[in-house]
Amino acid sequence: MSHISITQKRQNGRMAALMLMGLISIAIIGSALAADEGSYQPAQTLGSGDGDWWTAYPSQNAKAGSSVEHPSWILDALKEKPVLILVHSSNCKPCLVQIANMKDILADNRKNLTYYDILAEPTEGGDMQRATELLNIYSPSGGDQRYVPTTIFLTLIEGSDGKVGVAWHSVEDAMSKNQVDAYVKDAIYYHRQNQGDWS
Questions:
Q1: In angstroms, how far apart are the furthest CA atoms of the chain?
Q2: Cβ-Cβ contacts under 8 Å for 75 (sequence gap 6 or more)
Q3: How far apart are CA 46 and CA 62, in angstroms?
Q4: DSSP letters along 68-105, please?
Q5: Which uninterrupted H or E stretch holds 125?
Q6: Does domain 72-197 have CATH number 3.40.1390.30?
Q7: Full DSSP string of 25-64
Q8: 162 SS3 class
Q9: pLDDT number for residue 35
Q10: Which residues contact 197 (CB under 8 A, 6 or more apart)?
Q11: Mean pLDDT in residue range 145-159
């Protein structure tokens, strides 16, 4: 009888030790994740240059400096998560490259992003009206020509006035995986930092 009691006490002690180690591991992982996000340095900052995040039309745009009228459905989506939009056609080579370059990044970040795949074709499954609207608003150059693929990133960012507003960046043509990944990570980071202060 006393032998069983000693064995049970040892097992209970081992279980308690394992539970304690598990709790310590969870705390360490949680701290590491918080520290990782806290130490993240965005690849791009707010500005008006080619690679910057923009709150108004960028310097290379025909409407440079003027404000952007974001569609209400995008503003609604931004309440929850940053937004990524790909406007493309089904048969252009750069579009196929961009779709392939985005595949893994979307798989890894889908829960942290709202993604819209907009087919710029007057065919079944296509949405020419929405594609045209987006290309008219978010063309980085703002000229008369519209190009696919156009990739549009939207997030929330604190401006020089201290107010949080919508920031965006768009790229015409295919991007490298590293470029897409950098803007996605920036968008998620800025959104998490500023979501609570956006009204």
A1: 90
A2: 166
A3: 19
A4: ----HHHHHHHTTS-EEEEEE-SS-HHHHHHHHHHHHH
A5: none
A6: no
A7: HHHHHHHHHHHHHHH---SS-BSSSTTSBBSB--TTSTTT
A8: coil
A9: 40
A10: 158, 164
A11: 95
Question: Residue 73: its pLDDT value, please?
Answer: 98
Please work out, in degrees rounded to the nearest 5, the angle formed at the alpha carbon of residue 126 by the alpha carbons of 104 and 132: 95
Number of other residues whose CB lies within 10 A of the CB of residue 119: 20
User: Token pair of 92, please?
Assistant: 């252009």
Rounded distance, CA 96 to CA 181, Å?
Answer: 17
Structure tokens given for 31: 């701290």
| Mean pLDDT, the chain, whole residue set | 86
pLDDT score of 8: 55
Per-residue confidence (pLDDT) for residue 13, from 0 to 100 = 56
Q: pLDDT digit string (tens) for 27-75?
A: 444 444 444 556 899 999 999 999 999 999 999 999 999 999 999 999 9
Distance CA 187, CA 53 (A): 9
Name which of 88, 106, 131 is nearest 183 in CA terms: 106
Tokens coding 33? 């994740």
- 143 vs 152, which has greater pLDDT? 152
Read off the amino acid at residue 24.
Answer: I
Neighbours of 101 (CB within 10 A): 19
